[in-house]
Sequence to fold (516 residues):
Amino acid sequence: MSPVASRLRSAFPIGPGLLLLCVACVVMGGLLAPALGAGALALDEHVSYWMLDSEHPGTVQSRCLEYGAVPPLGSWLQAASVRLFGKSEWALRLPSLVAAWLSLVVVFITARHLPPSNADDGTLRGGVAACLLACHPDLLDEVRIGRCYGLVLLVATLVLLATLRWREKLCSFPRSLAWTLSASALIWTHYTAALLVAVSWSFLAVAVVYSGIRSKAGRNLAISSLLLGILCLPLWPAVVRLREWGPFLNMLAPEASVWQTISSFWWLGLPLGGLAALVAGALLVRNSRPAGPKWMERDWLLLGCSLFPLGVIAFIAVDDLSSLANPRYRVAYAPAGALWMAQWLTRTGSWKPAVIGLLVALGAAWSVQPLRPWQLGRLGSPADTSWRELSELIATQGQPGEPIFVQSGLVESSLVPGYFTDPVFMEYVACRVSKFYLPAAYPRQGLPYFWDEATLRHFENDLRSQSPPALWIACATDTDLNRGSLTGMQQLVEKLGYRIGSQVNWPHATLLRMTQ
Fold:
C-alpha cells in the first residue's frame, strides 16, 4: 500500500463511522443543491454582489471594510467563483455551499483527533458529528444563500482541528502557525466568530500553563498571539465603525427569547437524543456499559466553543445588540456542538444506539422550527422575483444615466440622513437594484426610512442641480417604513414638477417612472 493510501486509510477507516460520513455528505448535498437553482437573488445576496461590482472606484476589500458588515474573505471567494463560472445566481452561492459541504469531512477528521474514549476511537463519533452538522437547524438556511456563512462553518471547524492538533504538541511551531492562520481566516470571514478564537486561545493558554514545557510552549503561544493581532489589525477600523452603527443596524431587529438564541439543538435535541441512545444501548447492546461521565479536556474545549458563546450571545443580544440573536451568528459554534453531542451519543461504542439517538435528536430539534430542513427559507421568494423583474423593466424602458432612487428595505437605510453626502454609501443602500440584473450605468441612490429637513433639502438640491428629464423610484412596500419612504420621495419629486409617467405594482414592491 502506498504512503498516501495508507494515510487516507488511517484518516478514514472503513466502518460505520465512515458510512455515516457518506450518508451525511449525500444528505447535505441533497439539502443544499436546490439553492443552485433557487432563482432570483435575495436581499442579502444583492449586498454580496455589490461588494464585488460597483459603479464607483474601489476594491472588494475597501467596500467590505468601509461599508459592509462582514470582512472580505468570503467576498474574495465569491468574486473568484463569478469570474470562473460567469455571472449567475448559482455562481454567487457556490462558495458557501461547497465550504459547508467540505466542513463535514473536516469535522470527521477533527473527531479523530479528540482523545479516544473507552468505546470509540473517534471514527463513529466523527460520523455522528457529520450527520448532526449536515442537518443542524441553525445552519441550513444560512449556508444556502450567497453570503459568507458556509465559509464560516468550514473555517470554524478548521480552528477546532488546529486547536486539537496544537494541543497534542504544544512545542510544535508549524502547528501553532496552522492555528494562527485558521484563526485569522475565521476573523477575516466574520467578526463575531472572534469569540470562538478567544475560547480556543484560552484553552491553549491553560494547557501551556499546566504543561511541563511552559517556556517553549509559552513562546509559541506568544508568537501566535502577536501574529494573529498583526494579521487582524486592518479589521479594527471596521469593527469601530460597526460599533458606532450598532443602534441603527439593530433598529429593525426583533427581540428573541433565550430559548431561541440557545437553539433547540441544545435544550431539546441533546436531552432527548441522549436518552434515546441510552435506552437503545441498554436494549440492543449486550453487556452495554457506557463510558462513565468522566470530564476531560476535550469536554471543556467543545463546550466552551459551542454552548458558552451561545450563552454570551443570549445575554448581550438585547437593545442595541438585539440583532446578534439571528441564527447566522451561531454558525461558527455549530461544529463544536455537533462534536460534543456526538461523543454522548456514541458512549456505548455501538452504531445502532448512536444512530437512534442521532435521529431522535435531530427530529426533536427540528420539531419546533418554523421550517423543515428541505425548505429554502429566504431563497426563491416572490419578493425576490419581483425585484428581478423590476430591474429588467428599467433595463428595457429606461435610458442609461437616468437616476434610480431605491428603498431596498436594507437596515442601513436608517443611516442615510447621516451619510447622504457619500455617493458610495448611497449606492450601497440602493443595492437591491444592483448591476447583477441592471449592468448599465444608472446612478443609484438609497432612500431613508425617515425624512428630516436636512435629508429633504439634500435630495431636493441634488435633483434641482441635475434636473434629469426622467427618474425612477423603486421601493419595497412590505412595511410601513418602506411605504413611508416611498411617499416622502414621491411628494418631493412632484413638488419639483415631476409626474408619474408609469407605475408598476407588485405585492411587495412598487416602481415609478417620473417625468417632467
